[in-house]
Amino acid sequence: MTTISHTGTSEPINFLWFIPTSGDGTYLGSSDLNRAPEIGYLTQIAQAVDRLGYSGVLLPTGVACEESFVTAAALAAKTEKLQFLVAIRPGTASPAYYARLATTLDRISNGRLLLNIVVGGSPAELAGDGIHLEHDERYAHAEEFFTVFEELLEKGTASFDGKYIKATNARLGFPSVQNPRPPLYFGGSSDAGIDFSVGRVDKYLTWGEPPAQVAEKITKVRKAAGERSREVSFGIRLHFIVRETDEEAWEAAERLIRHLDDDTIREAQERFVHESDSVGQKRMAALHGGRRDKLEVSPNLWAGVGLVRAGAGTALVGSPKTVAARLREYQEIGIDTVIGSGYPHLEEAYRVAELLFPELGITREQQRLGFNNEFGRKQVFAGGSHGGNLKVVSGS
């Protein structure tokens, strides 16, 4: 089964997964059954999604995260096809240094690098990184930064004398594998963010707002891009809670927050308000207002994750058919890429691939290898005994 995009082409949605470089867990707002972001566990996730049919993984950035370029380099050596959507934050290093990081990672991964531009976040954290700019001014800075960055990747040299960035005869020793550069992704809901994005990026990302709100945003971005004679494609960042039935999925959603108390919710919501100037974060928080009784903000779109998690705070909840139908609604308004996640990320990567991918027309490695087929005869799992894990059904 394939899905039909808004352009009329028959293509499964492009599906990436998330690498939890700040840690993982089973229950939100709880210290029980947590997992540290040690490299062995992150490698397990990356290798699993590499086999399961995901096209790539997102690595976040921030003081609470393992450094994205270093982690991606380690995981690239342990995977084969997986692309790495690596966060790049202008201002934490020079454009020339980031250009060297990007081309090196693209070369050692044989062209598997994607770049996720992160301009916003916590002003306090940004100040700690040496970035002392107001919200909109950060985008003016980013425009100068990426002018130098892109020229280096495309030509190998760059000079620029701007308000924020000054580069004199900057040079890049080696080109990237991808020509002229790895694709640029970006997410930002403010007018300044949208204006920056449409002049430069290849894919605009939104967090998982209800389809009507996403449609409004896509229309706005398309119009702004059209005014610059550019086209931008679109992706969405969502969590997933997929089970065999809708009832089981909603039960799993409630289990995820069953240890979450009101004081923890209140503390998290106050932190989002006072520590972030992100327009997207404000839009996420407005979906639920910190209330447990207002979490289904659109059919099967659940905002429980956003009670305590900054950034992407909504999950699609339901059976494979239900979630696939909700994703088709996003496809119909222009979304062609999903960046998914679930708690814990290793187990939920398997659930999404095994339950949801068949509904989306995404082929997994096990299907290509014929794991469930013995010379064309139907099989069932027989418990993994020494006599064989698979039993041929008699009479088939």
* Biggest β-sheet: strands ordered side by side in the sheet: 1-4-5-6-9-10-11-15
The helical percent reads 25-40%
Report the CATH architecture.
Alpha-Beta Barrel
Overall number of domains: 1
Low-confidence segments, ≥5 residues, pLDDT <50? Answer: 1-9
Figure out the total of helices.
13
The tally of beta strands, per DSSP, is 17
Overall radius of gyration: 22 Å
Major sheet description: 8 strands, parallel, barrel
The name CATH uses for the topology is TIM Barrel
The level-1 CATH class: Alpha Beta
Structural class: alpha/beta
> For the terminal residues, how far apart are their CA atoms?
24 Å
Mean pLDDT: 89
**What's the SSE pattern?**
EEEHEHEHEHHEEEHEHEHHHEEEHEHHEE
- For the record, what is the CATH homologous superfamily label? Luciferase-like domain
* Beta-strand content bin: 15-25%
User: What form results from the Cα inertia axes?
Assistant: globular
What does this structure look like?
The chain has helices at 39-52, 68-76, 95-108, 123-128, 135-155, 191-198, 211-226, 246-256, 262-275, 279-288, 320-332, 345-360, 365-369, and strands spanning 14-18, 24-25, 34-35, 56-59, 83-88, 113-117, 157-161, 166-171, 184-187, 203-207, 233-242, 296-298, 301-302, 315-318, 335-341, 379-385, 388-392. The strands form 4 sheets. An 8-stranded parallel barrel has the order 1-4-5-6-9-10-11-15, surrounded by 8 helices. The model is unreliable at 1-9 (pLDDT under 50). It has 13 helices and 17 strands. The chain has a single domain, classed as Alpha-Beta Barrel (TIM Barrel). By secondary structure, it is of the alpha/beta class. The two termini are 24 Å apart. It is globular. Its EC number is 1.14.14.5. InterPro entries: Alkanesulphonate_mOase_FMN-dep, Luciferase-like_dom, Luciferase-like_sf, SsuD_RutA_monooxygenase. This is Alkanesulfonate monooxygenase. One of its GO terms (molecular function) is alkanesulfonate monooxygenase activity. Belongs to the SsuD family.
